Amino acid sequence: MGDLIKIRNWIAGKEASPSSGLWLTKFNPHSGEPMSEVAGSNSVDVAAAVQVARSAFDDWSSFTPLQRGQFLADIASKMGERRDILAACVAEETGKPPQDAAAEVSGAILQADFFAGEGMRLYGRTLTSSMPHKSSRLQREAIGVAGLIVPSNTPIANIAWKMFPALICGNTVVLKAAEDAPGIAHLMAELTRDAGLPDGVFNVIQGDGGSAGAALVAHPDVDVISFTGSTSVGRKIATIAGERLARVSLELGGKNPFIVCDDANIDEAAKWAALSAFSNAGQRCAAASRIYVQKSVYGTFKEAFAKKANSLKLGIDEGCDLGPLINKRQYEFVVEILGKLSSENLVCGGLERTPSNIRSGYYIRPTILESLPTDSEIHKLELFAPVACLYSFDTPEEAVEKANDTDYGLTAAIHTASIDRAEWFARKVRAGVVNINIGTYGSEPHMPFGGFGVSGNGTREPGLEALDVYSELKNISVLSRPFLI
Ligand code: NAD
């Protein structure tokens, strides 16, 4: 393992080795081979990063929002110059096809541009008062040190969704990189230095969640924690941060319903269902994993959906539709769950390892299941894999009832030609994002994203709503005394 590249922490504008001397191995998801050694950080490394971020806070938060926006614009421009390097790193670390990695980088640049522009706005409101000659206004102020914790499924997008709103609001950042996407976090850190961001404003801690992530959450000098990841880890974070009343934003899991009505365009619905369930190898919080089809079109849709699923190309080459799962642990988890199923439930996909380019690595073929009891493990669990379950319904009311039969509430989609049905569904379904005649995913940098139920804690990022996560609101009032004039 001596030849593997070492990915260190990034503290105060420089690389820093882990204090414990521990290194974790990151494996290539396509080949299963080791690809890098990653700093196995602990609370000592986290404390060093937080201290640096705290020291940088006064200067950074004293820049005007417009000046901070200029730094962000410079970062966006540097990302544009290095887009190929960034996309290659995303593709290699996650195993996603090159065109998907490139699209993700473009989305991250757009995110930087969006929040750079907020430097010229960062609006508050003016308020009226019951007292004559009193004026009142609401002003945004930085909170302090932001601890950002991200997963690896869309790694550069996940980082961008958090770091840019955190920075434009005047916070300094300690990012806990995803252990399966360490390189992209490191490239972003180097890039911020090269774009001229002052040292200490953006720091990266590598390592696993239980050690590095937990230490960041527990650190008393971290003022706001923004976490994207599983609901189970989100619960732990809320408990620990809640103890010291740190602000917490949680963007968690989903078990998202996709409804196909009898008046839908079936080919379009099958296309969007396949994209929602299988793109990014199903590793999306917004993936469609429960597909409800009206009885009269169930057979036709099932055939079109299975045909689409079977046509998808697995692999890491340009033009492939989906790559492998991110790591061995996740792969073995999915294999175990699918291994328990009866063949009667399998419409297509499953555990067979063909074609030959997917014999190694962590590949799962696009898999469609049916006739699963609603108390089954798969019906309830978020698998984070290219696996979708088909169910039927009689009436739109039943479809909504079934769609809402989950503790999650992240996204939902309906396919129908009826505007009344679509609007009615959009009002009734319990989800933070509702899409009509498209997929269950597809949010953009200016659109607030987040969920009901156990999909989050009520915050929304990104969009303008992210500014509320990363700023304190101060109400300032003044009495102008006309008798003094
Ligand atoms: P995960 O919860 O296991 O890990 C996410 C991050 O949290 C990683 O960086 C990990 O190291 C860290 N972590 C783990 N334990 C921790 C702890 N005790 N304290 C602090 N940090 C800890 O999730 P994952 O498997 O990497 O990602 C998949 C999950 O993320 C899915 O549930 C998916 O739905 C969710 N997700 C949600 C969104 C959203 O916007 N709602 C977006 C992408 C992914």
TrEMBL record:
Record bears the keyword Oxidoreductase: yes
Keyword annotations from UniProtKB, A to Z: Oxidoreductase
CDD domains according to UniProt: ALDH
Pfam (any one): Aldedh
UniProt domain Aldehyde dehydrogenase: residue ranges: 25-476
Ranges that cross the membrane: none
Active-site residues from the entry: E251
InterPro entries: Ald_DH/histidinol_DH, Ald_DH_C, Ald_DH_CS_CYS, Ald_DH_CS_GLU, Ald_DH_N, Aldehyde_DH_dom
Statement: the UniProt record of this protein carries the keyword Nucleus: no
Gene3D superfamilies: Aldehyde Dehydrogenase, Chain A, domain 1, Aldehyde Dehydrogenase, Chain A, domain 2
Similarity field: Belongs to the aldehyde dehydrogenase family.
This protein's name: Aldehyde dehydrogenase
Organism: Thalassospira povalilytica
